[in-house]
Amino acid sequence: MTSRSRRAFVATAVAALLVGCGGHPSGAAAGARPGGARSGEASAAAPSAVEPARTPGRSVPVGLRIPAIGVDTRLTRLGLTPDGRAQVPPITAHDRAGWYRYSPTPGQKGPSVILGHVTVGSYGDGVFRHLARLRHGDRIAVRLENGGSVVFAVTEVRTVAKADFPADAVYGDVDRPELRLITCGGPRSGSGYLDNVIVFAAPASANP
């Protein structure tokens, strides 16, 4: 990511990045600033998260698998709404997570961001309903459009008030491929939630 695109990415996130997780079609806001009450161990350094034999190059993500919490979902691509806010996955019976396409693709240097619902209105639980249960070392596999895959391991799980969303930690520069999974959590307020759950993950090879 160039310094210019990185600045635009962070500015967008600070201003308006939302993740749906409430009980109505418009979703509930995630913190708009780069989180958490509960944290695991810090990231360990590593050069790459891509499995060399299976991932020949940059490719957009199309699927996400998290065995520890039973997630196996296709990914939608999320952009921006006309008012400059990040799109969220649609509220449907067959809920999917979504990759924010203005973040790096998984396996490329920088934080790739995937958003998902914790609840989907009258349909019940969302795809990220158990995200807060992840623990240090749990594996996350991202399937790519080119047939390859990228494997990450959880380094930290935070639950943070939306008003204190840590934009720099979530969207800031890193010197390797990383992954962020974001949903809502904590107590409910009306049709939404007061907190965000943020999972930080780094190359699995760095976290044996």
Automatic annotation (TrEMBL):
Residues 27-58 are annotated as: Disordered. Pfam families: Sortase (PF04203). The keyword Hydrolase applies. Residues 39-53 have a biased composition (Low complexity). Residues 1-28 form the signal peptide. SUPFAM superfamilies: Sortase (SSF63817). GO terms for molecular function: hydrolase activity. Keywords: Hydrolase, Signal. It comes from the Bacteria. NCBIfam families: class_F_sortase. This is Class F sortase.
